Amino acid sequence: MAKITYKHPDGTVTIVDVPTGRSVMRGAVTNNIDGILAECGGDAQCGTCHVYIDEGNTIPLPPVLDYEDELLNSIAGRRRPHSRLACQIPVSDALDGLVVHMPEEQV
Amino acid sequence: MGDRVVVVGGGQAGFQTCASLRDNGFGGSLTLVCGEDVLPYQRPPLSKGYLVGTDEDIVLRPESYYAQHQIDMVNAVAVDIERPDREIVLDDGSRLSYDTLVLATGARPRALPVPGSRLHGILPLRTLADAEVLRKELAGCRRLAVIGGGFIGLEVAAAARKLDVETTVVESLPRTMARALSAEMSAYLTRVHRDHGATILLGRLVTAFDGDITGHVRKVVLDGGTRLETDLVVIGIGIVPNVELAIAAGLPVDHGINGIAVDEYLRTADPNIYAIGDCASYPSRYARGRVRLESVQNAADQGICVARTIAGQPAPYDALPWFWSDQHDVNLQICGISTGHDRAVIVGEPDRFSVFCFHQGTLIAVESANKPIDHVISRRVFASGILPTPDEVAAPGFSLKDFVSRDR
Q: Which of B376, B381, B401 to mutate to test the interface with A (most CBs of A within 10 A)?
């Protein structure tokens, strides 16, 4: 279980508890947090669960694999250095306190 | 555009239409008519992880989402459209008025009309309820016969082998996934399934099912009289689009049966009615004509597109079709539509490769096995319109990544 903070471009902030084993993507959709589409359901197929990890983040995250990297090159929003696909970040206790920012657009 | 939108069908397309309408600031009334007594869910896991006990978390959004977004969920089946009054009639006799109607009625499994097909233990797989039954039956089953070697059939076969069930796939065409894949990729997948212990019978027709005295299926009878002993049968011979509502309302349907005909804005012949997803036939440059696609990508992207149009930002639907499947250790990804290709070039290694499909020298599809990077880059390549030629792809050392880097 980890507390994850989702921040929206309009300033809205939602903090939710996400159980271990879920992804940061499922943490958003199961808590009615808008801004993530997740067309493929979390299979790293579609690139519609793009988020920006907070720039001040110090929590270690799984590395970006080559196909996630290429999907991030194809996303609708702007790719920045901290861009990730939320479905590729599994939640564990270690992620407690993670802050992610939603992009302006997902498609 | 009016401010009462009714969406018929609670699958991926219908759900996405509602979600995207609210995302686009649509403030009118919004009703989702859903024939299944469950919240909209993801279908892809039903033939994969769901059957083997993973991927249980398949609901698209929790129940509270619909209230929060003012989406009225109506659990009913639409039985009629009264276009002059702009009303739909539900199976309980009640009526819903609309200014804009979106038909996302989906499809149903194609039946196999042979003697014995109504015996117990012969199952379809389309809905969550179907998957629940199949999962339960598979758990106590020794021998499974899968009729149809397409996406659903092969995914079920892979799940069954994972559960150590003896599995036979009977396909009427000379190869598996013939409608969706090149002969090269099809041969590879067939081999993978055989390597995992499934029996794959090609070019064989089922002529009947035999049951025992309790009315449970025991044998699959094939052309030529061969009888396969079995405990369970799954029929996966394709789906039939639900177009009856449209036909009854006098809306044109492609070839009279293959999908509600819509234009590039996904609009039917009635300007107040749209049709999207598995039930709709639309003009696609990727198919070089009309096409009806059965995929999550198509359902979701058409939902997004139609929502934009209804919310007042109309844009033609032009998304690149893509598909995926997981079977054993193969992650299969397809970009484009390979139907009608006249040349296929394989690039890669034995278990990690892509098949590039060309039509008259133009790349029309890329099928990737365990090569997600090729798949993702090929989506970009199709979007850019700068496509590699067959000779470029066939040249030694070709890599799609180098190709896009060079052209950028």
A: B376
Select from B73, B76, B107, B70 the least CA-distant residue to B299: B107
Element (H, E) at A51: strand A50-53
- Chain B residues touching A71 at Cβ < 8 A: 376
Query: Which secondary-structure segment (H or E) carries B20?
Result: helix B12-23
Asked if the C-beta of B396 comes within 8 angstroms of chain A's C-beta atoms, the answer is no
Q: B46, B59 in Cβ contact below 8 A? A: no
Nearest alpha-carbon partner for B219 in B231, B232, B208, B210:
B210
Q: What is the pLDDT of residues A3-33, one digit of tens each?
A: 999 999 999 999 999 999 999 999 999 999 9
User: Is residue B57 within 8 angstroms of chain A, CB to CB?
Assistant: yes
CA distances from A100 to A8, A37, A50 (A): 9, 15, 10
For residue B62, the chain A residues in CB contact (below 8 A) are 30-32
Q: Answer for the pair B190, B175: CB distance below 8 angstroms, yes or no.
A: yes
Task: Tell me the two tokens of residue B402.
Answer: 């180098």
Residue B296 host element (H or E): helix B296-310
pTM higher than 0.80: yes
Residue closest to B309 by CA, chosen among B26, B14, B96, B7? B26
Collect all residues of chain B within an 8 Å Cβ-Cβ radius of residue A30: 57, 61-62
- Provide the ipTM: 0.90
Q: Do residues A87 and B394 make contact, with C-beta atoms less than 8 angstroms apart?
A: no
